[in-house]
Amino acid sequence: RPPRSTLFPYPTLFRSLDIALAAVADADTVVVVGPPRDVPAGVTVVCEDPPRRGPVAALAAGFAALPDGRADVVVLAADLPLITRATVAALAATRGDAPVALAADESGHRQYLTAVWDSAALASALTANRLRMRDLLPDDVVTAPVAGVDDVDTP
């Protein structure tokens, strides 16, 4: 089933936001977190307060902008120039009953900003007041190796 909501909690590279938006074109709600920018109709843009506090603050700001009644929440960094709808769908299918499915890049590194969360699990994680993405994760996280999720702006 297509994701219900999608968040993009971090800075973008040239054209990468457009690619990420295409990867979640079937989502009911899309929220981009960051400075004001031109986005397609129907996409909401919010910024964490204060700006640039990091991915957890950005994720919380984006999550707060989602409507009530959400189900799966796709979290994507906007620095994934190879992300596709198929990748997002595979990650969503991997989650099953787990609270969150994280993508792993070709080296096996978890990509905390390429994930599908159960919205209740994400809401609970965000109330814990953590500073790092990895600290939000419950014990029963599922990790799935997927192509096209290498972090292009980290050396």
Based on secondary structure, the structural category is alpha/beta
Helix content: 10-25%
What's the gyration radius in Å?
A: 14 Å
Largest sheet: 7 strands, mixed
User: Helix tally?
Assistant: 4
What's the pLDDT, averaged over the residues?
Answer: 85
The SSE string, one letter per element, is EHEEHEHEEHE
- N-to-C terminal Cα separation, in Å? 35 Å
Q: How much β-strand is present in the residues? A: 15-25%
Overall shape: globular
Residue runs with pLDDT of under 50 for 5 or more positions: 10-14
Question: Total strand count, please?
Answer: 7
The strands making up the biggest β-sheet line up spatially as: 3-2-1-4-6-5-7
Structural description of this entry:
The chain is an alpha/beta fold. The protein is built from four helices and seven strands. 24% of the residues lie in helices and 24% in strands. It has a seven-stranded mixed β-sheet, sandwiched between helices. About 3% of the residues have low confidence. The termini are far apart. A hairpin with a 5-residue loop joins β5 and β6.
Summary tags:
155 residues, globular
Concise overview:
This protein is of the alpha/beta class and 155 residues long. It contains four helices and seven strands; from the N terminus they run βαββαβαββαβ.
Topology overview:
Blueprint: E1 5-9, H1 16-23, E2 29-33, E3 43-46, H2 55-64, E4 72-76, H3 85-95, E5 100-104, E6 110-118, H4 119-126, E7 142-145
Parallel strand pairs: 1-2, 1-4, 2-3, 5-7
Antiparallel strand pairs: 4-6, 5-6
